[in-house]
Amino acid sequence: xxxxxxxxxxxxxxxxxxxxxxxxxxxxxxxxxxxxxxxxxxxxxxxxxxxxxxxxxxxxxxxxxxxxxxxxxxxxxxxxxxxxxxxxxxxxxxxxxxxxxxxxxxxxxxxxxxxxxxxxxxxxxxxxxxxxxxxxxxxxxxxxxxxxxxxxxxxxxxxxxxxxxxxxxxxxxxxxxxxxxxxxxxxxxxxxxxxxx
Length: 197
Known about the structure:
By secondary structure, the protein is an alpha/beta fold. Helices cover about 30% and strands about 25% of the residues. The chain contains seven helices and twelve strands. The mean pLDDT is about 95.
């Protein structure tokens, strides 16, 4: 089995904190994951420099996770389609209100067999009333299976390597196993369950 390519869709506080874990594990597990991890970054300027340039040269998201170094194998890319090209795993970690708009360019362009993981908090409010899980929304929009990571975690605590626990809901046991390897560290403990609701 060839190493899997990972893309992080989102680069805010939570996305950058998660990038620290995912980048670390992708690099240390070359048989399971490709070393470089693409991270889609909504391009903006910070002190006259592009945020992607800052992340790729200084290895820090100075706007959303200042003072914490990102692994050098995290590659910030401002085009979501380029970022997700050939990805086996897409980790969605952006505010729920931006999911549809941000992911629209990816529809029909994902690698066959790609799978998603939602770290998105909140629900989608349906026009006629009611709610929908963000993982279901992503799955319907992208046409891929989507697992879920949830826990009482704060981005800054995860980034500061304080002890945290989380649960990944994955219907496919092999996907659950890969995701556990991708996220778990000495200080970020992962339990995998088959329930994604």
